[in-house]
Automatic annotation (TrEMBL):
Cited SUPFAM superfamilies: Bet v1-like
Record GO cellular component, one term: nucleus
GO biological process, alphabetically ordered: regulation of photosynthesis, light reaction
UniProt name for this protein: Coenzyme Q-binding protein COQ10 START domain-containing protein
InterPro entries in the cross-refs: COQ10_START, START-like_dom_sf
Domain Coenzyme Q-binding protein COQ10 START positions: 21-151
Lineage of producing organism: Eukaryota, Viridiplantae, Streptophyta, Embryophyta, Tracheophyta
Record-linked CDD domains: SRPBCC_11
Gene3D superfamilies to which the protein is assigned, alphabetical: 3.30.530.20
Protein's cellular compartments: Nucleus
Organism: Aegilops tauschii subsp. strangulata (Goatgrass)
Amino acid sequence: GMLWVKEREGAHRCVVASITVKAPVREVWNALTAYEKLPEIIPNLAISRILLRDNNKVRILQEGCKGLLYMVLHARVVMDLREKHEREISFEQVEGDFYSFKGKWRLGQLGDQHTLLKYMVETKMHKDTFLSESILEEVIYEDLPSNLCAIRDYVEKAEAERGNSTIHSDAPTNPDTVPLCYTEGRQSEQASVHCSSSSTRQRPKVPGLQKDIEVLKSELGSFIAKHGQNGFMPKRKHLRTHGRVDIEKAITRMGGFRKIATLMNLSLSYKNRKPRGYWDNLENLEEEV
C-alpha cells in the first residue's frame, strides 16, 4: 500500500509505502544493508558508496538519474543512516539536492517466511528549484513502487535459489501478483498489501484520457457505475485499488479532484479531517498505512 500526503506550502511531500516479501526478515535486512550493491537492485540508482561506518551508524553517498521527456534529472545525496538490527534503518540527508530528505525503513516479521517492509520518507525541495511540483510527484510516485518491487524480486529470487532443493513448497509464489495496492485506512498490515487479481493485469491506455476532459468524464462515470457510489467522487485509494491510476493522474492534470467533482456535480467523500500538523509526523503517516 502507499499513502501520499501533499502539503500546501511549496514542494513538501510525505510518503509511506509497504510491501510484503516472501522471505525472512534476515534476508530482507541483508539486502537493504548491502549498501554498495544497491545499484544492482534499484532501478535508476547509479552510485551507492559507504563513506563512513561506525558500528550502527553509516554515512553513504548515493547518485541517481531519472529520464523525463526532453531532460534527464540527476540527484546526489549524502545521508547518515542509523541501523537497529533487523528492525529499522533511519536516514537523513546531510548534503544534497533536497532542502531536506529524511525517513526510515521498517521490517516486521509476518509468520515464519514473510516480511512486511515499510518505507517512510519526507522531502522538501528548495524554494528556488527549477522542478515543478508535478515533476517531483511523478518522479517519486513512479519510482517508489518499482523500487519496492525490485527489492522484493531480488530477495525472493535469492531465497528461491537458496531453497532450490525444497522448491515444492505448500505455498507457491504467484509470479503475476502485483504486491503494491491501495486499500482503505487502518486494516491489518497483511490486508493492506493484498491485491485482487483484477489489478494484476496491464490495463491498455485510454486514448485522450490525459488531455480530453470529455474522455475523463466518460471513464470516471463508468468507474463510478461499476465500482463506486452514485453521486460521489471516488477517492484516490479507491481508484488505485481497482488499478485506475490513469484516472487519478488525469484528474490531477486537469485541475484536481475538487474541480472535476464540481464539473460532474459529484460530492467529495472525505473522512473526518485530521488536525493541522497531523501529517507532518512520520509516525502518524505510518499508522495510516
